[in-house]
Amino acid sequence: MLIMIRSIVRPEKADDVLAALMDAGFPAATKMSVAGRGKQRGIKIGEITYDEIPKVMVMTVVGDKDQEFVVKTIIEAARTGGKGNFGDGKIFVTPVEEMYTISSGVKETDLSSVGEARP
């Protein structure tokens, strides 16, 4: 089974997360800028309240056997300070029901053929 891991991280930690995934053997990832808020409901600085805080979402698809390792890798790379801080982010894990390669139209059933050249 394939698993999608979506990580919402601080912008300054996104490159660390991507590098950690690459070093761990998981180079395939999608990165996008997002904005939102968590339990802290934004940030108030002086009289101004910022309802949405800039974050980065890193998405990757892995085999279910790699899920725990990849999640731990992301946590270690994204965490600030020794024990982490509010606003470090969240990780969402969901099953992938189907996956297709656009160029070939081939339905992928595992990650072994992802990225391979097609005739």
Number of strands: 8
Distance between the termini: 26 Å
Q: Provide the spatial order of strands within the biggest beta sheet.
A: 2-5-1-6
Which series of helices and strands comes N to C? Answer: EHEEEEHEEE
**Largest sheet, if any?**
4 strands, antiparallel
Structural class: alpha+beta
Count of helices? 2
Q: What is the overall pLDDT average?
A: 88
Oligomeric state of the chains in view: single chain
Computed CA radius of gyration, to the nearest angstrom: 17 Å
Q: What do these coordinates show?
A:
This protein has about 120 residues and is an alpha+beta fold. The chain contains two helices and eight strands, in the order βαββββαβββ. α1 packs antiparallel against α2 (about 65-80). The protein is elongated, with a radius of gyration of 17 Å. About 15% of the residues are buried.
